[in-house]
Design a protein that fits this description.
Mean pLDDT: 87
InterPro entries: CLN6
Organism: Catharus ustulatus (Russet-backed thrush)
Number of helices: 10
Helix content: 55-70%
Radius of gyration: 21 Å
Order of helices and strands: HHHHHEHHEHHH
GO cellular component, one term: endoplasmic reticulum
Protein name: CLN6 transmembrane ER protein
Largest sheet: 2 strands, antiparallel
GO biological process, one term: lysosome organization
Number of strands: 2
Structural class: mainly alpha
Strand order of the largest sheet: 1-2
Low-confidence stretches: 1-10
């Protein structure tokens, strides 16, 4: 499985500006931009019985993202567990493809009056369907979109990032600093991870990944190793993401409608649920 070699310990790599820039850019355009493109582009260009512009964005994302993740792994100065990486990439593509279908239908339902801040059975266009077994079909579609698709998409995504993070340590203290380019990118990167965690409802997965990163940093520090520029970029992105999530939750803490949709102990509303509740009428 590609155990770390002894001679890898003191290898380092420069900041991967090209990969991190492309990674951040395509995340914003192809993932965050998907539903926006679907809403703002004329419906006549993309009929409801055909893929939307957002679907084509998703297709591109499903190809480009695993490619960039593999390139990140290739750039690592350490020998990483390749078999785990390959299985994770395969699972990632499968999960993102499942999500593509479910998300496509769910977002197209907006044009028919579907409201994302309500559950499937509470939606006005769904609750009166006959026969009632049709409602079960829509709930199955929602399950594939929000649960199975997200799990098979995001678990390998964060696992790959963590595997890459394990190779971002150096014994040279001078290399543990972020260049200006990294400082400029860390804001957009953190803001995207905020969107990913809140919209994907994957806070538990994110926080466990973050805790694992913190534990690894403390463990490696005892060995005299510190994070290199790539590791610092990823670590600081996750720290700022946590602060953004806290601000988001604090802002919507007393929203009774969203509280009803997210009744659990962990209350983290989805941005698109907020949009359909408070801003879609303005749009």
């Amino acid at each position: 499985h590609g155990a770390v070699k002894a001679e890898d310990t003191f290898k380092t790599s420069p900041f991967h500006l090209d990969l991190w820039f492309y990674f951040t850019l395509q995340n914003w355009v192809l993932d965050f931009g998907r539903p926006i493109a679907m809403i703002i582009l004329p419906l006549e260009w993309f009929p409801l019985n055909k893929p939307s512009a957002g679907d084509y964005f998703h297709m591109a994302y499903n190809v480009i993202t695993p490619f960039l993740l593999l390139k990140l792994i290739e750039r690592s100065p350490k020998t990483l567990p390749r078999s785990m990486v390959y299985v994770s990439i395969i699972t990632f593509v499968m999960g993102a493809s499942i999500h593509l279908v479910g998300d496509s239908v769910n977002h197209r339902l907006i044009f028919s009056g579907y409201q994302h801040h309500l559950s499937v059975r509470e939606n006005p266009i769904i609750r009166n369907l006959k026969p009632e077994t049709l409602i079960d079909s829509f709930e199955l579609l929602y399950y594939y979109d929000e649960y199975l698709g997200h799990s098979m998409w995001y678990i390998p995504f964060f696992l790959i990032l963590f595997i890459y993070f394990t190779g971002c340590f150096t014994a040279v203290a001078e290399q543990s600093r972020m260049p200006l380019a990294a400082l400029l990118l860390v804001g957009p990167s953190s803001l995207y991870y905020w969107y990913l965690v809140t919209e994907g409802q994957i806070f538990i997965l994110y926080i466990f990944t973050f805790f694992a990163m913190m534990a690894l940093v403390m463990h490696q520090r005892r060995k005299g190793l510190v994070l290199d520029s790539n590791g610092l970029f990823l670590f600081y992105s996750f720290i700022i993401t946590l602060l953004l999530i806290a601000l988001w939750v604090g802002w919507l803490w007393n929203d009774k409608t969203l509280r009803k949709k997210y009744p659990g102990v962990i209350y983290i509303p989805e941005p698109w649920a907020f949009y359909t509740l408070h801003m879609s009428t303005l749009h």
